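We both want to read discrete structure tokens more fluently, so let's practise on a single case. Would you write everything just below, so we can both look at the same thing?
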Amino acid sequence: ALWYENPNVLRAHYPAFAERVARMGYASWAALPLRAGGRVLGAVALGFHGPQTFAAEDRALAMTVAQQSALALQRAQLFEAEQRARLHAEALEAVAAVGLSGLPLNELLHELLRRVRDLLGPNLIISPSHEAILPNVPLENIRAMAEEATEMLVE
């Protein structure tokens, strides 16, 4: 954590930043890391319009709030990742279900293409060589997803 009780102390360490803080009307400032799971997820900045003495109890309370905020942020990130993984698995199941549907080959290919487009998003382009191309998505990722779908079809 960084604790700057008056503008002179901040200016001595970070002159350019101190200037920005002063333009925002703050005379003292603190930055608290949001740490969870061994990594820094972000930071909380606290600005005060006048000089501020950060007593040990105030620092401890602020650090506790920052730690609790970091844990909440980490849980939210884990929840979002789990949701994305679940949706991805459901989409792969839908692709696999088409492969097991017994449709004629032409209909099967069209339905697979539609579902793969749904899975990969609206930026999917099929090249003349029938390779899927996505801007900013490495071809290895697309191939890995295709392999996952293939494995599901085989099971």
